[in-house]
Amino acid sequence: MADTKILVALDVSNIEQARTMIRELAPHVFGFKVGLELCSAAGVPTVVNGISDQGGAVFLDLKFKDIPNTVYGAVKASCRPGVFMMNVHCDGGSEMMKAAVKAARESDNTPLMIGVTVLTSVDLSTLNDEMRVSGTIQEQAVHLALLAKGAGLNGIVCSPHEVRAIKQACGESFVTVVPGVRPAWAVTGDQKRVMTPAEAAAQGADFLVIGRPITNPPTEVGSPADAARKIVEEIKMAVVG
Q1: 204 near 170, Cβ under 8 Å?
Q2: What is the domain range of residue 166?
Q3: Of 93, 101, 127, 148, which has the fewest beta carbons less than 10 angstroms from its beta carbon?
Q4: Structural domain count, the chain
């Protein structure tokens, strides 16, 4: 059973909103995921400093995908103090992933380098018919995870449904970062391959990325801090069980 940690997705448009959320949630979660919306609005240095100054660990979710040299430069520029994890798209290929790993290892702050396998908004018909990738989502996710491991990445992003198969293929120490996590009391939203936090923890997920169920919980749940505490308890129950 993994020592599952929560990363709150700060899907907000300005740093003031993010700081307010960080102050409330930092005592209850491991860290915070910041992505394209906030970083585009405020800039990576401002966002990273704004979180790390308050003691939060930063997962920089920018999903780099480009030619190897460009990704090398982007990763090198993003390895700032406070960033403990960042990611690239696995389908950029092995040479691109190797360039990302090289850049991370050459920096003073060496974050975990994680590869994105199949987005949780992608279902089987999208994978097969639109993207023209044959086979199942799990087969594609495992294939990309093995490529990522071979390129030197520390782990991958995958849906909770692929965690167990990826751990079996790549080893228990290969890190799994899992979005598509929704408590039973939260709406699914645009995620298509979801599990509850307890179910994902039971699969062996290392990090759970959870956004709206914590940042905008149902009224009956209470505040964001109440929601975070509720989810932590659900995970503990799964581990004990």
Answers
A1: no
A2: 5-240
A3: 93
A4: 1
